[in-house]
Amino acid sequence: MSFQGPEEYDYLFKIVLIGDSGVGKSNLLSRFTRNEFNLESKSTIGVEFATRSIVVEGKKLKAQIWDTAGQERFRAITSAYYRGAVGAMLVYDIAKHATFENIDRWLKELRDHADDNIVVLLVGNKTDLRHLRAVMSEDAAEYADRNNLIFIETSALDSTNVEHAFQQCLNEVYKRVADRHFSNVNIGQTTALPTTNLQSTILEKKFCCNS
Amino acid sequence: MDSNQETKFTKNENKDVPNQNSKGESPSSETMKIRKSQENAIDETTTKVDSVIFNNSSVYDEPTIIHSKKLFNINSDPNTPSFQIVVSADDDGREVDKYGFYGGTQYTNPSQEANIPLEVLRVRELKWIDMLDDWDKWMAKKFQKVKERCRKGIPSSMRAHSWQMLSGSAVCMYNRPGEFQRFLKLKGSETCLEDIRKDVHRIYPHHELFINNNGQGQEDLFNVLKAYSIYQPSVGYCQAQGPIAAVLLTVMPVEQAFWCFGTICDKYMEGYFDPGLEAVQIDGMVMFSLMKKVSPQTYRHLKSQKVDPLLYMTEWFMCLFSRTLPWPTLLRIWDMFMCEGIKVIFKVALVLVKSVLGDAVQLKRCSTVYDTLEKLKKIPAEYMQQDYLVKEILKLSINEKDMEKEHEKQVKIWKHKKQQQQQQKNEQHTIRQQQLRRNQQARNKNITNNSSEIRGDSTEQPHTQKENDKKILRNTTNPKNIKQRKHAKIFSKPHVDDKLLNNQTANPFKNKFLVEAGDGSNSS
Known about the structure:
Order of helices and strands of chain B: EEEHHHHHHHHHHHHHHHHHHHHHHHH
Region (Disordered) (chain B): 1-42, 407-524
Number of strands of chain B: 3
Largest interface: A-B, 52 and 67 residues
CATH topology of chain A: Rossmann fold
GO molecular function (chain B): GTPase activator activity
CATH architecture of chain A: 3-Layer(aba) Sandwich
Helix content of chain A: 25-40%
Largest sheet of chain B: 2 strands, antiparallel
Oligomer: heterodimer
Number of domains of chain A: 1
Number of helices of chain A: 8
Organism (chain B): Helobdella robusta
Strand content of chain B: under 5%
Strand order of the largest sheet of chain A: 4-5-2-6-7-8
Structural class of chain B: mainly alpha
Shape of chain A: globular
Helix content of chain B: 55-70%
Radius of gyration of chain B: 27 Å
CATH superfamily of chain A: P-loop containing nucleotide triphosphate hydrolases
Strand content of chain A: 25-35%
Distance between the termini of chain B: 58 Å
Domain Rab-GAP TBC (chain B): 153-341
Distance between the termini of chain A: 16 Å
Radius of gyration of chain A: 17 Å
Number of domains of chain B: 3
Largest sheet of chain A: 6 strands, mixed
Strand order of the largest sheet of chain B: 1-2
Keywords (chain B): GTPase activation
């Protein structure tokens, strides 16, 4: 596997997967990084992570994806997970409306703990359960629009859009990072500490060798 | 092959892969083998299984779907002897192991088993029978010996009884006949029940007891967790509790498992599952600090990379290693844990961290936080073998006093930190409010000259702030609440608990004293 052993990359991006328990975060991660799906994947206690690299505009981006516990009480210890994250996938289950209703609270989590410029994707997972759909795509798209999120629907079970979702997230992160290269001053002006941290996280890793 | 079970379809991989894809990273296989996921897709009466794909597959090109429960469509009776299940499997398929596992990361190969000679086992059994016969005396006068024998491992035939005596749950059950059944008749919180329902099928899906949806094992597991959530409504259900209850159910019947589970959650792991997860956070700091003494260079490394202990110890501690260690090791560690308390979990954690990050060569390979975390997440099997682990635990250079001292220190730091955070929050809030007020005033000036509006706004301000402060207070854990909850416990042994109740945060090192002081007098 190409992501084992020493590996060179141009950028290292930390992406976090958040959302209610049971929406399929761990399976999105395993589908994207190992192409595996497990109907009985154990609940995540604490944090799990995996990496995969992709190439965007000739640059090798290494995505370090953090999968977090979804149960409400684990939010007490999730602040450590958000540190340095440049992308977030906010996952809900299209067959369970309550998981969509909770998106608001997850967005608040992001606002409280993550960088202001973090790229956020709204991901409606489990599209394979089309006969059980409880959240209409239009509603979710409208919500995403209102909150400036990128919207996508996926199925970790049959792989639909999983690649695309992560690619889109990484592309967008890359775009924002590239933009900031040219407008560093602006960034410094608009926000305080977190952005500086984020910026340095990305830059420090640049041209690193993971040995 | 039954066509109901297996379907093949072709999937165009380019559908969702943009052009700029890295070489060799995307699935190259055009044909995907997939088992139908829908509940009704599988013939429920089928007992013969054609193929099994286990979780450890690392071949990237072959997408796998793992659905063990459906694959092993077995009789719902957990007492069904495993040899009756016909399993003809793929290259990865295995027979059930000694502990009831069909697969998964905790499957034990017969070759990995520690071979204790039968005569030795028999002698140990007799010793345990002797101890259990006169438990009070042993606990009161020869606790050291009991501890030693737990460290050697409790013979499996004696384990159920011993764990109940060591934890004191036997007494709880004896004192409260019918209580468990009464809890089950109550309705319980729907949020908790839904969370439990979401989990029971995925806690040890590779174990024969829990493999079948609607099977007795899953029902028992549901009942234990439900009963506890009713008995301790302020704790409710935490996902980390599932595996703990499940381990107990593999050892003892459901009612016994419930009382043992209750004792573990309330006494051994007090505060671990409370909504604020404070005890876990404090214990993470304690563990990290103890590392300084166990392996200074590991401590320095973790400190320099700012690796938050919560990133690797949460699952270890909250699940008591039940999802990490190989099964024989887990049982042996739990034998010790039942006797000595959470200190054992600290020691296991310290040994594991030291084993993977103990020397300069290992540390050199961990140049980034991620490398370090990966090492801690993927601990080589050799470090988790029971003989190695127990030997290293006994060799550790820290004693109980060190641990207790460190705990006290960290609790103080924790409280101080909380206070500071609260202050900061209040200050930020005030600044925000002032800013808002200024903006509002500016707007009001621009739009209208009605001064009464401005006055109204400013009189309203303190009220809002107060409200917000209240909200913050509600959100943070209030020690007073903890205290009240502790009083409400029915597992409590009065003469020990009075002293403990005065501590506002959970003390993980008290359990030895609990066992020593409590069990001797309580067991009958």
